[in-house]
């Protein structure tokens, strides 16, 4: 098969040639956009799921849908070592520019408020570098969104920006990737601001994406967050959708798969979108001709697995210390033992008990707390329920057993 015509695209956040299995989420978001534009009450949206299920791709697709409706949009990626003010200010600045409000005086006032919000972290003796400027050429406003209390400031800022959008009969959408990495104060402020917007009916929504424990992070910040957001779990694709993700791009290149090949691909990838693209690319490059067969999948599987081992699994494993790696391997061993013996609760995400991991390592649970907490902060594991932990990356346990 001609590698130049290879249609598959394994990459972080890179849109696949066929966005299969996400029609429900895209359709529901179109309804949200229309309702908000008409002044109807609607909740902000949170997407959750493991690594590799396509959260970032879907987040970008939702943003494109908002852009097509002439909304103002901005996007940021949360980082655990960075506060919310600066990246959010850049995202909102872009959203205001996209909105294109015709009244320059009103826009300049809101931009001044935005600039004040962005610069509030800098002290009175801050250097020019510390007085970060998000590219706004108007003077910073005073007395609005600059109190220093992020919760008060964000409510005021969202209110002013939402007013601009309301004037236009459109909306503002802020897209936040890796939302679970926001600091506790920033999460609390974001929830409070969304709560205020929901009561005032202003057309500004937040669309977040993060790991499966993100709802717990939001709930721990504000009890009403469970009613504040519409939560959508993004999971692996069904067999039908996975087949379409492979066959539709192939058909565009006058190629096809046999039924046995599609079955083999689903067995190998588990329906995870990133894996589908990785295996699809490897199989295409190594298959001698169309239609692609199950034998072609078998031949290409080692190359796909090696690519995933280096770029998808290995890069994450390398971030762990020796003690943390020991903890990860123990998690994988406990999961296998549970599957073989049938003892313990086995769920669809492969959760294991922290007590069982301690038994596996022959150590007291308290002594393992530092390693577990560090892995949680690094985003390699998560805890959706007290006493249980799971990998944030699908098939990570299999990688650990085969390579680590």
Automatic annotation (TrEMBL):
Transmembrane segments: none annotated. Residues 166-332 form the Cytochrome c domain. It holds the Pfam family AAA_16. InterPro entries: AAA_16 (IPR041664), Cyt_c-like_dom (IPR009056), P-loop_NTPase (IPR027417). Keywords: ATP-binding, Heme, Iron, Metal-binding, Nucleotide-binding. The keyword NADP does not apply. One of its GO terms (molecular function) is ATP binding. Residues 1-21 are annotated as: Disordered. PANTHER family: ATPASE DOMAIN-CONTAINING PROTEIN, DNA-BINDING PROTEIN-RELATED. This is ATP-binding protein. It comes from Nocardioides cavernaquae.
């Amino acid at each position: 098969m001609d590698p130049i015509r290879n249609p598959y695209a394994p990459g972080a956040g890179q849109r696949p040639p066929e966005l299969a299995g996400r029609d429900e989420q895209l359709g529901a978001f179109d309804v949200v956009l229309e309702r908000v534009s008409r002044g109807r009450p609607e909740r902000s949206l949170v997407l959750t799921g493991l690594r590799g299920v396509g959260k970032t791709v879907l987040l970008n697709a939702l943003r494109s849908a908002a852009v097509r409706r002439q909304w103002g949009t901005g996007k940021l990626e949360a980082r655990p070592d960075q506060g919310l003010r600066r990246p959010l200010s850049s995202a909102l600045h872009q959203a205001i520019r996209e909105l294109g409000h015709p009244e320059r005086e009103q826009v300049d006032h809101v931009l001044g408020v935005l600039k004040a919000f962005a610069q509030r972290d800098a002290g009175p003796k801050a250097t020019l570098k510390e007085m970060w400027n998000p590219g706004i050429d108007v003077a910073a406003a005073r007395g609005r969104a600059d109190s220093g209390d992020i919760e008060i400031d964000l409510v005021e800022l969202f209110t002013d920006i939402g007013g601009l959008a309301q004037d236009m009969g459109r909306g503002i959408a802020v897209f936040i990737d890796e939302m679970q990495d926001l600091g506790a104060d920033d999460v609390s402020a974001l929830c409070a601001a969304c709560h205020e917007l929901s009561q005032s009916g202003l057309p500004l929504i937040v669309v977040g994406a993060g790991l499966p424990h993100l709802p717990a992070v939001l709930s721990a910040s504000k009890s009403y967050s469970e009613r504040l957001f519409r939560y959508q779990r993004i999971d692996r694709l069904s067999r039908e959708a996975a087949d379409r993700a492979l066959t539709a791009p192939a058909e565009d290149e006058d190629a096809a798969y046999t039924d046995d090949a599609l079955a083999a691909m689903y067995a190998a990838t588990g329906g995870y979108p990133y894996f589908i693209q990785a295996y699809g690319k490897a199989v295409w490059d190594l298959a001698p001709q169309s239609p692609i067969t199950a034998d072609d999948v078998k031949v290409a599987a080692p190359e796909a697995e090696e690519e995933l081992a280096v770029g998808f699994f290995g890069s994450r494993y390398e971030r762990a210390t020796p003690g943390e790696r020991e903890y990860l391997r123990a998690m994988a061993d406990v999961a296998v033992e549970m599957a073989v013996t049938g003892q313990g609760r086995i769920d669809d995400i492969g959760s294991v008990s922290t007590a069982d991991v301690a038994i596996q390592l022959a150590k007291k649970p308290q002594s393992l707390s530092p390693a577990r907490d560090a892995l949680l902060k690094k985003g390699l594991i998560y805890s959706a329920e007290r006493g249980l932990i799971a990998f944030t990356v699908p098939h990570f346990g299999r990688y650990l057993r085969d390579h680590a």
